[in-house]
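ARCHIVE CARD
CATEGORY: sequence design from structure
SOURCE FIELD: tokenized fold
FIELD CONTENT:
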């Protein structure tokens, strides 16, 4: 098999390029109208680094930046749907329901009897729907139309084996000759339901998995698809990594000495538990998709770029996997709180706590809190940087491994 290098459709970098597109959506900044000066929340500056197009699927009219400085961007308007597309969405939904009932619930792409009854109930009560009823079927139809015109060789996406991923994979296979490859957003818990029992979905899920670290490759090497190391740009895209290894990254503390960084799913619980510690003062870096609810007398809300702010605090308490990876790159110790994205059976190590309440219990001074900041990220868990050449090697590994494995769908 001839090996290829990465390139974009418009600007090939060599005679034999892999034409790659990266897919995101307007659920994230800057496309949702928030943090317009930053790159995509999920992909960071990866598209610009590797020289490929970023495709943003829009569920609502565009609210993002007029000028984007982190690579080439194309948009797919999922909120504009033609009558014939509505018919196709309904047919896809019927197929999804049947496959979900007969083979695996994940093939339902969100359209389950319980889901439909809930939507009917909300309509009867006159409550607005957060998303279209056939959300993922609409995404599949819109992406199919785009891919038939653009026709890349490889599509990279996050939400590896979820409903969004299923819509993308279905669109790629409906068009044909397009390889969908899942790319991890961050580390994944060993008991993740999304990664469970994927052998029965082979041929319907991604053709390969790109992992953020060597630890993740080892963890998921038994999946029925090729698994290889890719690294990540997200935890490091705006870090100044020119400091020689081994030297301190710390700068003089300019604000509060302790910073809280919850994950999206852990935010409500942290807000509730923090009320029990009014004698401790913190700065909080809210998740960009859940910025509200931090109006507490002992809390200062951080608004500046998180990766840079991490350098300003002596103690960081976090349950966010990506923030932990950034701290690993910086070789910083921290207080780790297990959260929604960690395994429920994970063994507690030094500096690791089940809940924020456990981490703060018995602490009355900042010095006591500092003594608990001893968690560290093992080197095999730290994601390597990504370059055009390294990602090309990872994609070639998937393409080669795919040819060696059966790919017929079980459904």
């Amino acid at each position: 098999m001839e090996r290829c290098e990465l390139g974009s459709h418009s600007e090939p970098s060599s005679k034999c390029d892999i034409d790659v597109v990266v897919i995101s959506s307007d659920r994230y900044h800057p496309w949702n109208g928030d943090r317009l000066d930053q790159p995509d929340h999920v992909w960071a500056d990866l598209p610009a680094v590797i020289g490929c197009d970023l495709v943003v699927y829009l569920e609502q009219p565009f609210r993002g930046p007029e000028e984007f400085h982190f690579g080439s961007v194309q948009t797919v308007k999922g909120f504009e749907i033609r009558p014939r597309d509505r018919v196709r969405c309904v047919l896809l939904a019927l197929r999804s329901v049947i496959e979900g009932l007969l083979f695996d619930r994940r093939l339902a792409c969100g359209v389950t009897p319980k889901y439909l009854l809930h939507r009917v109930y909300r309509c009867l009560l006159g409550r607005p729907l957060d998303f279209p009823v056939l959300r993922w079927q609409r995404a599949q139809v819109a992406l199919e139309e785009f891919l038939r015109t653009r026709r890349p060789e490889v599509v990279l996406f996050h939400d590896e084996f979820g409903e969004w991923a299923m819509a993308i994979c279905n669109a790629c296979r409906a068009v044909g000759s397009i390889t969908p490859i899942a790319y991890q957003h961050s580390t994944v818990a060993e008991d993740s339901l999304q990664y469970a029992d994927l052998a029965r979905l082979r041929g319907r899920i991604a053709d390969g998995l790109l992992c953020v670290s060597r630890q993740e490759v080892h963890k998921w090497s038994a999946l029925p698809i090729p698994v290889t190391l890719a690294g990540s740009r997200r935890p490091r895209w705006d870090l100044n990594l020119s400091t020689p290894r081994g030297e301190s990254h710390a700068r003089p503390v300019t604000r509060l000495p302790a910073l809280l960084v919850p994950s999206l799913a852990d935010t409500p619980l942290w807000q509730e538990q923090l009320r029990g510690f009014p004698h401790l003062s913190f700065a909080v870096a809210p998740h960009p998709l859940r910025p509200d609810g931090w109006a507490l007398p002992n809390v200062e809300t951080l608004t500046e770029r998180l990766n840079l702010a991490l350098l300003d605090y002596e103690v960081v308490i976090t349950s966010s996997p990506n923030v932990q990876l950034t701290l690993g790159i910086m070789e910083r110790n921290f207080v780790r709180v297990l959260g929604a994205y960690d395994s429920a059976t994970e063994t507690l190590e030094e500096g690791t706590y089940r809940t924020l309440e456990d981490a703060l219990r018995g602490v009355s001074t900042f010095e006591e809190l500092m003594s608990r900041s001893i968690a560290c990220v093992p080197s095999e868990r730290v994601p390597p940087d990504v370059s055009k050449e390294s990602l090309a090697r990872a994609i070639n590994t998937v393409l080669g491994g795919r040819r060696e494995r059966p790919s017929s769908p079980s459904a």
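CARD ANNOTATION: Residues 5-81+126-235+385-403 form a domain with the Rossmann fold fold (CATH 3.40.50.2000). Residues 12 and 19 are 8 Å apart (CA to CA).
SHELF: design records, drawer C
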